[in-house]
């Protein structure tokens, strides 16, 4: 390998120089970036990483960006939090949440992949970038392109959440609404990328883009004190994230940074769009496309690009996949917020609800160290909670009115004791 | 000082043991926490701080929490970002943004102050906490109380933004809407705190709460490589933040962690609620309360608790204060997003617009190292941008339709060259 990374066909293994390419010209299978682990051995050490920035760029030498790349996207190094209150509710004993809903410019894990894709868009000389998106990617590309000074076309299904639409337009991106679902949008983007010399982060830049997700895996391992968890629960849309966290763990093992261990991977989908979890449950080695119908719109990909690889990773690891209803998604959003103070979008509701079910069904042992991946912020999908909370009538700003209010709630608060240390 | 911190009256200097108290019983002036700098000298070193967590808790030994306090709120250590594109637009040459819109559980700087307040609520044995809030504080208290397992009453003006209401209710807090503005709400909370044994973070816990803002100042200095900027531009609501960043800088100087320097502080308000900037401009040493009318609702405090101290800090430092219209606020939100990929709430629009004006008016020299504080996320005030962007009609998912769309935009993209390295 001349550079520190190159492209290889996932199926036939054909090697390609770095280029905006995503499909093998021999066998039409997807291409993947392979990083040169031997070359990284000197720089990818615990000490060098600890001395790096508080962002995903601490792992730069195992991400496919030029050696002299100066990062412009402050993404990653998101909190890995113990979740004792949620754990107690769902019968877990050693549960962590990897919270990508914060410490991200646009509040989802997509900032990671876009950061790597845009670095390569610059290298390849594109002045216009774009994507097909279910929302979070749109936000990340629009904001990233603003920082990089690139022109942007973003194509989305026309039914996207209002917050995700605004959170794309505000950065000055051109947002094109498509009358169709994500799979229609994605097909159109492939056609556009064939015709125009644009960098579509999840089409012709996809191999680079996808590698950005490895940073989730690197962070989990480092934040656990350079060890791997027993289980990872991950939402699945296109299916890429779960495969890249697994790849990150394998790279850490190969470099001797963590002890060898087979981590079990568990995939989470909404029942209204569950092509990958269905394949896992049926033991199928192919994905049957579905027509999505779920409030978890960021996961609503009926024909997932990496579905086969996600199902394979889950099976090989000894994991499982589950899917949950829209009602369960809303409940799980509330449960995570009430127990751990984390407000997640619908996709995080999916992951939380699936995590609970995996414990309930005995798929995960209570004592296992399990990491659940929360990938986006609740302020992105506020419409999913519309009507859930009553808007009570306002009261007048008087103590008597407040006392009437709380007595109606049957609350009898402790009174201030005169002379005690309370104002 | 027996403990590492205690309360002192800001005016008469009377000392108090730690307690949920905010007003001096001698002279009725506000109390402030004073940390024992000498006691912290051994632990508050550059090396010890660098070895600490990637959060505000790296500065724990100069925050008023018990020595054995185990932090539960993963707040702070937010990015300090160079803002070259915005700088170019407004005639600055060395502009940084301290971005508290990310890396915060509820996406505003209020998570910092609430983290410290709730640590003390626990120490004082409160099982119920609350606040009066213009929105961001409500979010932070609700989420923090969920993590701490505390009961919560949150009182807000009835016209709060929908996203801020939902982002309070989702954590299971009781949200009480008050028919009045923030100043009415705050007065009611003082009455409630007098009657019930509850911890109101910005009433009887206010001295502890306010100290949390020092972490912004500590972070700015450390992220600049342990030096102080020339100027800091800060939004002002109650006026506390600006005074506490200044206090943090003074503590760093006293401990020898940074070179001595008089940093100029600049305050930012909305013209529709500008009691502090008006006082600064008029050279007045008192604050004339106003009736707020602005889209920057998180800054809509007409009778700011720390207004006098904020105006004094600005004057003493050689700074200035400005206020901007609602139209300028919206433009500045867009400008910051388009140039730096940062989507801020209305308060951030205020700070950005004021920063631009300070450069335009020559109040800040172009070469100065200036830090502008962005304190909350744009997804919290999406209603402020309602109607700003057209919702274009959706197009069909066909290449011909897309080409018609871009030709209507007068865009003529470069075509893919056959045989070139582009898919």
Automatic annotation (TrEMBL), chains A, B:
Its cofactor is pyridoxal 5'-phosphate. Residues 75-376 form the Tryptophan synthase beta chain-like PALP domain. GO terms for biological process: isoleucine biosynthetic process; L-serine catabolic process; L-threonine catabolic process; threonine biosynthetic process. InterPro entries: Ser/Thr_Dehydratase (IPR050147), Thr_synthase-like (IPR004450), TrpB-like_PALP (IPR001926), TrpB-like_PALP_sf (IPR036052). The keyword Lyase applies. Belongs to the threonine synthase family. This is Threonine synthase.
């Amino acid at each position: 390998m001349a550079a520190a990374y190159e492209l290889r066909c996932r199926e036939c293994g054909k090697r390609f120089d770095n280029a905006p390419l995503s499909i093998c010209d021999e066998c039409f299978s997807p291409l993947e970036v392979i990083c040169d682990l031997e070359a990284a051995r000197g720089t990818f050490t615990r000490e060098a990483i600890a001395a790096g920035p508080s962002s995903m760029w601490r792992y730069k030498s195992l991400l496919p960006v030029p050696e002299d790349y100066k990062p412009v996207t402050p993404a990653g190094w998101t909190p890995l939090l113990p979740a004792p209150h949620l754990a107690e509710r769902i019968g877990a004993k050693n549960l962590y949440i990897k919270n990508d809903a914060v410490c991200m410019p646009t509040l989802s894990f997509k900032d990671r992949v876009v950061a790597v894709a845009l670095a390569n868009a610059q290298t390849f000389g594109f002045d216009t970038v774009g994507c097909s998106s279910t929302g979070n990617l749109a936000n990340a590309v629009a904001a990233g392109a603003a920082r990089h000074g690139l022109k942007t076309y973003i194509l989305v299904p026309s039914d996207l959440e209002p917050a995700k639409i605004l959170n794309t337009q505000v950065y000055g991106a051109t947002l094109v609404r498509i009358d169709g679902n994500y799979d229609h949008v994605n097909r159109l983007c492939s056609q556009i990328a064939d015709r125009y010399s644009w960098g579509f982060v999840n089409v012709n830049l996809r191999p680079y883009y996808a590698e950005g997700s490895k940073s989730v895996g690197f962070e989990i391992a480092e934040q656990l004190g350079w060890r791997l968890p027993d289980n990872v629960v991950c939402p699945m849309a296109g299916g890429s994230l779960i495969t890249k966290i697994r790849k990150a763990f394998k790279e850490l093992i190969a470099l001797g940074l963590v002890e060898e261990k087979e981590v079990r991977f568990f995939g989470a989908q909404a029942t209204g769009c569950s092509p990958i979890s269905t394949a896992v449950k049926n033991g199928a080695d192919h994905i049957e496309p579905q027509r999505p119908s779920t409030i978890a719109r960021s996961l609503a990909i009926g024909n997932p690009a990496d579905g086969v690889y996600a199902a394979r990773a889950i099976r090989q690891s000894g994991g499982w996949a589950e899917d949950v209803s829209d009602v369960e998604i809303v409940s799980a959003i509330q449960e995570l917020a009430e127990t751990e103070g984390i407000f997640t979008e619908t996709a995080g509701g999916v992951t939380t609800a699936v995590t609970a079910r995996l414990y309930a069904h005995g798929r995960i042992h209570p004592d296992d160290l399990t990491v659940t991946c929360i990938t986006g912020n609740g302020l992105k999908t506020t419409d999913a909670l519309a009507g859930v909370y009553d808007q009570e009538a306002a009261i007048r700003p008087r103590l008597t009115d407040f006392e009437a209010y709380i007595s109606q709630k049957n609350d009898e608060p402790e009174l201030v004791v005169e002379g005690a240390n309370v104002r």
